[in-house]
UniProtKB/TrEMBL annotation:
Organism: Roseovarius litorisediminis
Classification lineage: Bacteria, Pseudomonadati, Pseudomonadota, Alphaproteobacteria, Rhodobacterales
Biological pathway: Cofactor biosynthesis; coenzyme A biosynthesis; CoA from (R)-pantothenate: step 1/5
Molecular function GO terms recorded: ATP binding; metal ion binding; pantothenate kinase activity
Location within or outside the cell: Cytoplasm
The keyword Glycoprotein appears for this protein: no
Residues spanning the membrane: none
Top enzyme class: transferase
Keywords, in A-Z order: ATP-binding, Coenzyme A biosynthesis, Cytoplasm, Kinase, Metal-binding, Nucleotide-binding, Potassium, Transferase
EC annotation from Swiss-Prot or TrEMBL: 2.7.1.33
Name under which the protein is recorded: Type III pantothenate kinase
Record flagged with keyword Transport: no
Gene this chain is encoded by: coaX
């Protein structure tokens, strides 16, 4: 069985893949100081709690936080006796190499999303991933990552308002009933929600125009369904896109 680990700047997600389906998905906050033993204690407790029969033979890691990789490597080696594949490292091959400026370090999450989306939908795609940052990844006709856009994440934008302005409270993102807010919270909700719908549609439209070929928009990340309510341009939403991409890259490396 494969343990797929997706470590973002906010949350770290573990999923167990038995070759057919994901048996479970576990989520914890990302902390660079978490030790291998601490990962295992958390992981083992939840796997026992769910009563899943698990036999991990392989581990693959994608991390947008370089510092956490060391402890995840120790975790993999100590508890499963295996050397993990780490996306973005030279020993982890990609089905199609990215085409970007020389020397650019593409976020591994974006490479993984590209592989997952190409496997399911073929080329000519925009992948929109709502995480700490919101990323737009352009997948070419042959499955190569060829660039995109990085925007401040939704929660980051709300946090920034609260941090920088003394009178603005900490709030969660939600779709407001009206665009014209009549109190502070509704005004903030309107600005962030409709502002973000405009950002998504504006960037996707401009990417399509510049790309010059019809493209499908694939969205992922917990907040995507919320923006769909504001008529964001997504063609599909796939909650497990990053995890699927990790299985695709793992299979590709095993086959070779
Ligand atoms: N379904 C959801 N509803 C509301 N907020 C969410 C949802 N899913 C994720 N978030 C929030 O979005 C932010 C980014 O989450 P996440 O996707 O875990 O980011 P990353 O991959 O960068 O770690 C976090 O602040 C998280 O709490
Ligand atoms: C843009 C990101 C911060 C998104 O990370 P996340 O929101 O998943 O934590 C990450 O993909 C990253 O660090 N990228 C490196 C720069 C690039 O992709 O061009
Ligand atoms: K992201």
């Amino acid at each position: 069985m494969l343990l797929a680990i997706d470590c973002g700047n906010t949350n770290t997600v573990f999923s167990i893949w038995d070759g057919q389906e994901f048996l479970c998905t576990l989520r914890t906050s990302t902390h660079h100081a978490r030790t291998a033993d601490a990962y295992f204690t958390w992981y083992y407790t939840l796997v026992k709690h769910y009563g899943i029969e698990v036999d991990i033979t392989d581990v693959i890691i994608s991390s947008t936080v370089p510092r956490v990789v060391f402890n995840l490597r120790v975790f993999s080696d100590r508890f499963f006796g295996c050397r993990p594949l780490v996306v973005g490292k030279p020993e982890c091959r990609l089905p199609v190499e990215p085409r970007v400026d020389a020397g650019t370090q593409v976020g591994p999450d974006r490479l993984v999303n590209t592989a997952g989306a190409f496997d399911r939908h073929g080329g000519n795609l925009i992948v929109v991933d709502f995480g700490t940052a919101t990323t737009f990844d352009v997948v070419a006709h042959d499955g190569a990552y060829v660039g995109g856009a990085i925007a401040p994440g939704v929660n980051l934008s709300l946090e920034a308002l609260h941090t920088a302005a003394a009178a603005l409270p900490h709030i969660d993102v939600a779709k407001p009933d009206r665009v014209i807010g009549t109190n502070t919270v509704d005004c903030m909700r309107s600005g962030v929600f409709w502002g973000y719908v405009g950002l998504i549609n504006g960037i996707c439209d401009r990417i399509k125009e510049e790309y010059g070929h019809p493209m499908k928009v694939v969205s992922t990340g917990g907040l995507a369904p919320l923006f769909q309510q504001g008529h964001a341009v997504f063609d599909v939403f796939e909650d497990d896109l990053t995890m699927h991409g990790l299985t695709v890259i793992h299979d590709y490396n095993k086959e070779g």
